Amino acid sequence: MRAVVPQLPEFLRELLTSDVAFVVLFVVFVLEGAMLLYIAPSELLVPGALVLIGEEYLFPILATAVAGATVGQYGLFLVAKHGGREYLVSRSWFRLDESKLDRFDGWFERWGPLVVPASNAMLFTRGMLTVPAGFAEMSSRRFLVLSAAGTLVFETALAVLFVFGGRVVG
Question: Where would you find the membrane-spanning parts of this chain (predicted)?
Fold first, then answer.
């Protein structure tokens, strides 16, 4: 479990040990939530922050992660809501192709808004239902609550596994 830190890029490790660590962590999670972070897997961010900033800052790290990811997802939600499918698919920074987007649209149509927190709480689907929620013109308030709830579950699970798993292993 402690091998998570070498997997983070060097510049990110340095920033997360600086005086502006929580600002950097917030920005990193905004990028992660907006599906723009390509430098590190989202599953490593909270464990990496716990190592670099310190486990004694567990709750501020979780709060920063949830707030940042929610802000990032909300930005993507608004782009989907106001820009539409064609706009997003034509953007080079948007990584979902038509077939994946169709699949996630289907999930949203079948299960409704509850897939937003469910997808945010699972590996490999984090944030993927943000775009269909925007296309469906879900209310902003509802999206924010559901997005934050799913992110809180995901990040808390990672932190608990890391802290307690690390103590058992280490």
Answer: 20-39, 59-80, 143-164
If one counts the domains in the chain, the total is 1
Q: Are 44 and 8 in contact (CB under 8 A)?
A: yes
Q: Which two tokens stand for residue 163?
A: 């802290």
The b/e string for 8-42 (b: 16+ C-beta within 10 A; e otherwise) is beeebbebbeeeebbebbbbbbbbbbbbebeebeb
pTM of the complete model? 0.88
The answer on pLDDT for 2 being more than 60 is no
Q: Average pLDDT, stretch 142-160?
A: 96
Whole-number Å distance between alpha carbons of 29 and 15? 14
Within 30-129, strands assigned E span none
Percentage with pLDDT > 90 across the chain: 62
Domain that holds residue 13: 4-169
